[in-house]
Design a protein that fits this description.
With about 350 residues, this protein is α/β, with parallel strands linked by helices. The chain has helices at about 40-50, 125, 130-145, 160-165, 180-190, 200-215, 235-240, 265-270, 290-305, 320-330, and strands at about 5-10, 15-20, 30-35, 80-85, 95-100, 105-110, 115, 150-155, 175-180, 195, 220-225, 240-250, 270-275, 310-315, 335-340.
């Protein structure tokens, strides 16, 4: 058995490198990866070379502590099984099913403190969504939805769909999804959205306006999540904002930019725009919340939503180039793509 590691070599080009299996140090374990999820947002920016150069990849994740520069091993959603342990590690770790924020790789060594054991009853197919669900939970925490509010989710990729599923747990007046792709809109409805629209067609806009006007107010959204990854969508979100509406931007645009209309109503309506990033907890929560408490909530949401239904494509890691080409060229064809790994 050899170690298979995925590297982004340059824009639109990647390779799978082979090497000997790593040996765990006394304080480490060896993990054999079974599945890893591809982020169609951040990872496609890396694939296309649209990342800010010399920016830290992710200072909060030890395996991603370097800077954005090719060649780059990237990814942060792996599930697998501990197959060996160092002399200083409790051998009870061997055989445990775990999640790790780690690049796409068939085997890796890590300290147990950086692993999250999968709770009983949660499959690896559901567990591989932990990172996306953590982002969704963090987004909802930052948005602070209120009972009876009118809420919109712009962008129904996997993070947008998971955010919709979490929001569906709240007693909202209206929960609307916006995305140009029909399969994504249907998935949002299946996860609990009240309606879904392209955001462009007259009938869709009329349905949104009618639903928002069914409760007292100005017919605008109280809370909007911009999760499309497209900075131009922020102007669309702003068009649905009213007096003191809140917009939470969960998208990472990388090196992409676009003119944003912050004149007119935005200024006079006191629209609040905030960013949400899962690497940290908002200061308002740190007095009562820790990342461990947030993970407990995330696992509860994984158990409630069972997000494995969103997996539409599976590729052997040795076919990774084909997987990323598909996501880059035909993003409408699927929801979640995962990489699989040879059995030992």
């Amino acid at each position: 058995m050899r170690q298979l590691s995925l590297f982004f070599n340059r824009p639109l080009t990647m390779e799978v490198r082979e090497g000997p299996l790593p040996e765990p140090a006394p304080d480490q374990v060896l993990v054999a990866t079974r599945l890893s999820a591809i982020s169609a947002g951040t990872e496609l920016l890396v694939f296309k070379g649209l990342f800010p150069e010399d920016m830290a990849v992710d200072a909060s994740i030890p395996s991603l502590s370097g800077r954005f520069a090719y060649p780059l091993a990237y990814g942060y959603s792996c599930v697998g099984e501990v197959t060996a342990s160092g002399s200083g590690v409790d051998p009870g770790w061997i055989g445990r099913r775990v999640f790790a924020f780690h690049p796409h790789e068939s085997h890796f060594v890590v300290s147990p403190e950086h692993l999250l054991p999968l709770p009983a009853g949660i499959s690896m197919e559901d567990g591989v969504f932990l990172a996306g669900m953590e982002t969704a939970v963090n987004l909802v925490m930052d948005g602070r939805p209120v009972i009876g509010e009118r809420v919109m989710v712009w962008g129904l990729g996997v993070v947008g769909l998971l955010t919709t599923a979490v929001l569906a747990q709240f007693p909202l007046a209206v929960l609307a999804g916006v995305d140009p792709v029909a399969t994504r809109r249907q998935a949002a409805l299946d996860l609990g959205a009240h309606l879904a629209s392209t955001g462009m067609e007259a009938d869709g806009d009329c349905a949104l306006a009618e639903s928002f006007s069914s409760t007292p107010g100005d017919g605008k959204a109280d809370l909007i999540f911009e999760l499309s990854g497209n900075p131009q969508a922020l102007n669309g979100a702003l068009s649905w904002s009213g007096f003191h509406s809140r917009i939470v931007i969960g998208s990472w645009y990388g090196a992409k930019s676009t003119p944003i209309d912050l004149g007119g109503r935005y200024h006079r309506d006191r629209v609040a725009i905030t960013s949400s990033q899962v690497g940290t907890l908002a200061p308002m929560f740190t007095g009562r919340w820790s990342k461990a408490r947030r993970f407990q909530t995330v696992w509860q949401m994984v158990r409630a939503v069972r997000p494995s239904t969103l997996i539409t494509h599976r590729f052997d890691i040795r076919e990774a180039q084909r997987a990323y080409d598909l996501l880059a060229d035909e993003p409408r064809d699927g929801l979640q793509a995962v990489l699989t790994y040879p059995a030992e």
